[in-house]
Write a structure and sequence with these properties.
The complex is a heterodimer of chains A (295) and B (361). Chain A has 295 residues and is mostly helical. Chain A has helices spanning 4-35, 42-60, 68-86, 95-118, 143-165, 167-177, 179-184, 189-214, 222-236, 241-258, 264-281; strands spanning 133-136, 139-142. In chain A, 72% of the residues lie in helices and 3% in strands. The N and C termini of chain A lie far apart (42 Å). The chains are: A mainly alpha (295), B mainly alpha (361). Chain A: This is Branched-chain amino acid transport system permease protein.
Chain lengths: 295, 361
């Protein structure tokens, strides 16, 4: 039986990890909301952002966080372009299925190019504060993990405020709720959907930079992330942002606690167990709304 | 007549390939392509008939290979007995998997199929005491006395036989009532259900059949290659290649996956030879998949036959396969015909042309 302080430590780490999962799952939920698209390439873009942060740090020595100034707008534009140039050209009848394959192909291209440019070698950013940690009610927490969580929390909060309190957010939510009705009241739904997609990809830039702070990265790492993220959005109910956030927190915490007793690999199976359990019991997801029931 | 001739010519080429191949290397390329062809034809039982796209069929191939290998090494069964027992075991395992996965449609189904491969990868890597983990599992060769080239030749014909079996099974289902029900699911699942098709049972049965064939292909590969590693056996990439090959050739056609396998399999071998150390083959595969999805989601065969039909002007045949959209167009046309403003030239009053018709293979 692990000691109480160890359990507490795991809970703290679980919350920190869950925050990052929640941010990334929110991006996936946005894509699904605006386009009915399951974006397999999300985690590939995550790794791409991490590589850009690592590369900028290696070449110029700047703090990885500064790369956000470049990667966030860049990814936003890439998202809009992807929606406009690729996804809207698929046939509506088979959009969901074909978009999976299309984004999968994007993921393959990114992985291949990353491997070509930077080789398969594992990379890691060494920072002045990499090994620093804080004492927090008896739990030791690495500073970089706190920064990563802070980034994720700030991005999620920003996303929430944007969705709730801006005209764009209103238009985006209207587009997600009922595209035709939104178009009827004068919203340019195509443009809004494009921006929504860009917004989703921008969250991958933030997540990737957060990830680069304390993880070893390599080109095929995105497969490691895609499973848990997909599991989270199914458990949370496809298309539900709060559902994704709750599921992300719950599963991230469970994974962290299971690591006390099991190896890291076995602890990861919690996502897949949850995925299959959800499908067997409640296929529309545990927190899903109206949208999820159709898929 | 023409088709029978083409079929016989194809069989003749396939049978004589080992004696024509200039070196054992070309023979192994031939085996790899046949392996791909069996895999994508097996995938096409689900993908082609029902329209459910599984990216996780690599899991069944890997399970077939590992089950065969473990039955030979730990169970001490003869190689080919192990192969069929393994396929049966995978078929049994596919029942609960299909039960969970087929409860959801579209996007969720694809997610589940991806998850399946990732789980298997985790399990087979972690459970090293049983599966050998990342050190790999060596499967003893079924014909220890044979030379390497003889060994390749035997496996070439074994793969060819398996491919013939898979194609035959697909052909039979294609012409059966069961196949009709599956295609109804592909076109409009809710409507098929409301018309009394037991959609869930049909989906599950064809999923299990597909898994069993995939496992046979994987197991045969295990016996041929002799060395299994979880990273390659349970890779999403192998599932993606199956989808790519089937889509490229055309999922509604018997020979679609086979054609796709020849193109993709040869391309992969070539890029491995040319750019072996780089991950550029991923880029090629990704770009090819993107192009197929964007520009010819029905595959090469319909695109080419459509072109040929337009050139020769033989677009009409008596047996056609039509989509729901085409049926709707046709119905509109009939309704237009019974109205008094019916025109003798067969054109609709609104001047719209016929929907494009797909010629059945």
């Amino acid at each position: 039986m692990p000691s109480a302080s160890l359990v507490f430590q795991s809970i703290v780490l679980g919350v920190l990890l869950g925050g990052l999962y929640a941010l990334l799952a929110a991006g996936l939920t946005l894509y699904f909301g605006v386009m009915r698209v399951v974006m397999i390439a999300h985690s590939a873009f995550l790794i791409l952002a991490a590589y850009l942060a690592w590369y900028a740090h290696r070449e110029t020595g700047v703090d990885p966080l500064l790369t956000l100034l470049v990667t966030v707008p860049l990814f936003f534009v890439a998202g809009v372009a992807m929606q406009r140039l690729l996804l809207t050209r698929l046939r509506p009848a088979t959009l969901t299925m074909m978009s999976v394959l299309l984004t999968f192909s994007v993921a393959l291209v990114i992985e291949g190019l990353l491997g070509y440019a930077f080789s398969g070698t594992q990379r890691r950013i060494r920072l002045g504060y990499s090994s620093a940690s804080l004492e927090f009610f008896g739990a030791r927490v690495a500073v970089v993990k706190l920064i990563a969580f802070g980034l994720a929390a700030a991005a999620l909060l920003g996303l929430y405020l944007l969705m709730r309190h801006s005209r764009f957010g209103q238009a985006l939510r209207a587009t997600i709720q009922h595209r035709e009705a939104a178009a009827l009241v004068g919203i340019d739904t195509d443009r809004i959907a494009g921006y929504g997609f860009g917004l989703g990809l921008a969250t991958a830039a933030v997540g990737g930079t957060a990830l680069s702070l304390d993880t070893t990265i390599y080109p095929s790492l995105h497969w490691h992330w895609i499973g848990p993220l997909m599991a989270i959005i199914v458990v949370g109910g496809l298309g539900s942002v709060p559902g994704a956030a709750i599921a992300a927190m719950a599963l991230g915490m469970t994974q962290s606690l299971l690591q006390l007793e099991l190896s890291t690999t076995w602890a990861q199976t919690v996502f897949y167990v949850a995925l299959f359990a959800t499908l067997a019991v409640r296929p529309q997801g545990f927190f899903g709304g109206r949208l999820a029931q159709r898929f | 007549m023409l088709r029978l001739g083409a079929l016989l010519a194809g069989i003749a080429v396939a049978l004589s390939f080992p004696s024509m191949a200039p070196s054992p290397y070309e023979l192994t390329v031939g085996i790899a392509i046949l392996n791909f062809a069996v895999l994508s034809t097996s995938w096409n039982f689900v993908g082609g008939f029902t329209g459910y796209i599984s990216l996780g069929h690599g899991a069944f191939a890997g399970l077939g290979a590992y089950a065969t290998g473990l039955l030979v090494t730990k169970g001490e069964l003869p190689s080919f007995v192990a192969l069929f027992v393994a396929a049966a075991l995978v078929a049994v395992l596919a029942i609960p998997v299909g039960y969970a996965a087929l409860r959801v449609r579209g996007a969720s189904f694809v997610i589940v199929s991806i998850a399946l491969v990732l789980i298997m990868l985790l399990v087979f890597q972690s459970w090293a005491s049983f599966t050998g983990g990342s050190r790999g599992l060596v499967v003893p060769r079924p014909f220890p006395g044979k030379l390497r080239s003889e060994h390749h030749e035997i496996f070439y014909f074994l793969f060819l036989g398996l491919l013939a079996l898979a194609l035959l099974a697909w052909w039979i289902i294609d012409r059966s009532r069961f196949g009709m029900g599956l295609k109804a699911i592909r076109e409009d699942e809710d409507k098929a259900q409301s018309l009394g098709t037991p959609t869930y049972t049909y989906k599950l049965v064809v999923f299990v059949v597909s898994a069993a064939f995939t496992a046979l292909a994987g197991g045969l590969y295990g016996l041929w290659f002799g060395d299994l590693d979880p990273v390659f056996q349970f890779s999403i990439l192998s599932g993606a290649y199956m989808v790519l090959m089937a889509l490229l050739g055309g999922v509604r056609h018997l020979y679609g996956p086979l054609l796709g396998a020849v193109v993709v399999g040869y391309g992969l071998e070539y890029s491995k030879l040319e750019y072996g150390d780089t991950p550029l083959h991923l880029v090629f595969a990704g770009l090819l998949l993107g192009v197929v999805v964007m520009f010819m989601p029905d595959g090469v065969i319909p695109a080419v036959t459509g072109l040929v039909a337009r050139v020769l002007g033989t677009g009409e045949t008596s047996i056609r396969e039509v989509t729901a959209a085409e049926l709707r167009d046709e119905r509109d046309e009939r309704e237009a015909d019974v109205r008094p403003d019916h025109r003798p030239d067969g054109k609709r009053p609104d001047g719209k042309r016929d929907g494009k018709r797909e010629v059945r293979q």
